[in-house]
Amino acid sequence: MTELSKDAPCDLITLVSYYHTLNSRFFRRIEPYRIDGEPCVPEHLHSVQTLHAAMREVSTAGVPWWGVAYHLVLGSLYVACGVAWFVTPLWRAACAFGALGWVWCGYLQHEGCHAAFRSRTANQVARWSIIPWACPRTWFVRHVTKHHVSPNTVDDWDMKSAANPSPFVRHHASLASGALHKLQAWIVPVASMFVCLDYSLLPAMQACWLREPLWGESAAFLGTFGAFIGTSLYLHADPVHAVLPWVVFGLLFGNITQISHIHTDCIPDEAEVKKVDGLVLQGRTCMDYAHGSLWDSITNIWLNYQTYHHCMPRISHFRYHDAHLRAKLDGLLREAKVPLHEERRTWGTLRAYVHYLRHLRRLGIA
Q1: d(CA 129, CA 103)
Q2: Among 3, 216, 321, 340, which residue is least crowded by beta carbons within 10 Å?
Q3: CA 46 – CA 31 distance, rounded (Å)
């Protein structure tokens, strides 16, 4: 992480460190990269420090035993579906492989990149489990050091605004409305099948070409991805069967991750971002739903606990299923004046997301 963040301001590094390492040794490692005169504990991060002190025992407890069992069971199913995709030309095997790639690999790497496991080795292996679906290096850079630090702002790569435009997706009124933006409520759900191209393939190629920090992870992803596709084509000579798992993975990834942040109540304006407390910003930009529902948690890779996760990302998502822990966290977040947006059902969250996209269409050009 030090290598990936060496050119970043200390404020960013401090925030990522508070959220994930809680380790004073990290500050000594990044001291050479600190900007002169800039404090390494900015005032707006004091609430983060307070919350972590109150939850330190849980945040360093790692994954519970039943979470380990969960990973072993789903991992076995994932391997079985992968073998079935290789040896049979059945499309249902390809779909199951892609779906479990999202449900298991997507969740496992998410836990690993936020250091949810107590072992550093376990966290690294968990991060690499996203291969061959996506590039672990790209995911860490965009998700941990950009999205989590500045959610739903111009510094968030996932937020499509005037600072980070897209011809297909428009998340903020600052981005002028184009012809395709008016249809995004229908385009985005379908176009998500190509999300791996933009989110992993192209950035991984760039990282390898420029020899960026940890480019070896990008090379491992590209090599494995090519080997999987090539082997399937060699065995079955069916291009659709070869790419179908990535299409399914992309559809799930592109749609489910959207509904946790893209809502009317979760989009702060830039003036608010500059003056708001760092912890409040995390809660302000998240949408929770279906708390306590194990089925919703599994299918949404536990993103239904988004506010808790953004405020305390090192805590394993499995622990948020504990109602007593959620009650304790709710109390601490209320004391810190952190808002909690929550829908009772996944369907309500999805409906609110579509409503916001249609609202942007009516706004036209900002």
Answers
A1: 12
A2: 3
A3: 19
